[in-house]
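This section describes the prediction task in plain terms. A model, or a person checking by hand, is given the sequence of a single protein chain and must write out its three-dimensional structure as a string of tokens. No templates, partner chains or ligands are provided. The sample shown here is typical of the held-out split.
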Amino acid sequence: MNDVAPRPWRSSLIVTVLAGLCATTPALAGGRAVAAVDRSAPPPLGRPAPVTLPVPERFTLKSGLPVYFVPRQRAPLVDVVVNIKTGALDDASDRPGEAVALAAMLSQGAGDRDAFAFSDAAARLGASLGAGVDWTSTNVTLHVASVRFVAALPLLADLVLRPVLTGQDWDRKRDELVADLAYARDEPAVLARLAAARTLFGTARMGQPL
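The expected answer:
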């Protein structure tokens, strides 16, 4: 195999590029320092970007349920949030954590479907359904493509009105919740939030885990 000698023009090109960099970059030109940045004060704030919030349309269903509709044109998707004004603060004093357990169980079977059948029905529609709870409310959510929204509504209705809440699904979910509690004891972020809550609220309900 024959060695190929380097072409002179390549070497001269590299030297020219390096010379140009040294001339235009203070850090490379003779080791000169870059101009110091004043860090004694924060940089000036720029002009706030204009924000236009959508105005929801409000109407009421025949059942009396108020609906707030916010149109979104970015993607053919629908998000539904059913807000129930009952949260962890409504737990019985001798049963803390009841609202969290209820929210965890809502998607573990509903209507005539157990947890696996309910999950399969949602997956066939490409829909995501779930529930979460805070101190004052419980939110049940649906996320689905617009073309499958009507087909997904019965699943949402079952989840809100006809959750199973019994049997083998509850036994499995209870074990998951207990495991989550054990895991949370080793999470610094969870412990920090709990310490802050106890500092602010003492022995009151909001000073305890949700």
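For orientation: The chain has a mean pLDDT of 84.
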